[in-house]
TrEMBL record:
This is WYL domain-containing protein. Keywords: DNA-binding, Transcription, Transcription regulation. It comes from the Bacteria. Pfam families: HTH_11 (PF08279), WYL (PF13280). InterPro entries: CBASS_pafABC_assoc_protein, DeoR_HTH, HTH_11, PafC-like, Tscrpt_reg_HTH_DeoR_CS, WH-like_DNA-bd_sf, WH_DNA-bd_sf, WYL_dom. Residues 11-66 form the HTH deoR-type domain. The keyword Lipid metabolism does not apply. One of its GO terms (molecular function) is DNA binding.
Length: 323
């Protein structure tokens, strides 16, 4: 086992303190830093070189107004936070992941998962208390408990089984899963997981989960489907009793801009056409939505929906003729 000498430990602590100072203010002179650190200006110059070796772009300028400045690098190096800064950052990320910040949920959760790995235990209670005071209004993603998101994110990261109660018909049933990915749609959070009791991949709405826990039992990850594509198809099609496929005579990008990602799956079919997959309890309504996109289209599946198109077309022609 490697032993760190007191001198090395003191140097490391001093360099971290120097980094913290450079993050607090835009410009520091050498004498100012030396006074703060209790060392000579020569030692400050050596510590600055140590930071540069670690990838921190510390710039030095001469003359009046000159000094040391922490610049913007090509890669994002680690940041140093004091307790107050860590709490503020974590609460903001939890609020964003939970739905209070529209459009930032998935990135906020990824960042919070990274911060969670190094967050001191003493700060967790205060962060949890403060995050509960954050509210939002207006349309956006369905709010979920940030603690639930973090529990699931940790389980995905650590590859441990998770359990939760989930509606099945008129009752709640305990589900035991191998969590793979959290997926954010425009409206909701979903978990893609391997359902151990049903022996297959499933997607679950996080806002419908209760009693969420992560176990210590680790699992070996299976070959998994594309998480975002699987969840989108589940939400837009498989969740409904009936599904339909259309060939729409318009570019995929054009059609994606017209329909919600939770309402239909749009796949390119050449440069000028696309395949649209959707579902519903009543395929007449699905047909109307595709018709109102304003593009020529063909029914691919099911065959009886093509017959229904001709029936409705006859009624519309008759209605137009009678006017």
């Amino acid at each position: 086992m490697d032993v760190v000498s007191p001198d090395e430990r003191g140097t490391t602590e001093r360099v971290l303190t120097l980094l913290g100072l450079l993050q607090q203010r835009q410009v520091w002179t050498g004498p100012e830093l030396a006074d703060r650190l209790g060392v000579t200006p020569r030692t400050v110059r050596r510590d600055v070189e140590r930071l540069r070796t670690l990838g921190y772009p510390v710039h030095a300028t001469q003359g009046v107004g000159g000094g040391y400045t922490l610049g913007r690098g090509q890669d994002l190096p680690p940041l140093l936070f004091d307790d107050d800064e860590a709490i503020a950052t974590a609460v903001s990320l939890l609020a964003g992941a939970g739905g209070a910040l529209a459009g930032a949920g998935d990135a906020a959760l990824r960042a919070m998962t990274k911060l969670d790995q190094v967050l001191p235990t003493r700060l967790r209670h205060e962060i949890r208390a403060l995050s509960g005071s954050v509210e939002s209004f207006g349309r956006g993603r369905t709010p979920v408990d940030p603690e639930v998101l973090m529990t699931l994110a940790r389980a995905c990261r650590d590859e441990v089984e998770a359990g939760f109660d989930y509606p099945s018909g008129d009752e709640l049933r305990r589900r035991r899963v191998e969590p793979y990915r959290l997926v954010a749609s425009d409206l909701r959070w979903y978990l893609l997981a391997y359902d151990l009791d049903r022996d297959g991949w499933r997607s679950f709405r996080v806002d419908r989960m209760t009693g969420v826990t992560a176990r210590t039992w680790r699992f070996r990850p299976r070959a998994a489907p594309d998480a975002a594509a699987y969840v989108q198809e589940s939400v837009a099609s498989r969740v409904y009793p009936r599904q339909a496929r259309f060939l729409v005579h318009a570019p995929a990008g054009t059609v994606r801009a017209q329909v919600s990602a939770s309402a239909a799956v749009v796949r390119p079919h050449g440069a000028e056409r696309c395949e649209v997959l959707s579902g519903g309890a009543n395929l007449d309504l699905v047909l109307v939505h595709v018709l109102l996109l304003g593009h020529d289209f063909e029914v691919l599946d099911p065959p009886e929906l093509g017959v229904r198109c001709r029936e409705l077309a006859g009624r519309l022609l008759a209605a137009g003729a009678s006017g």
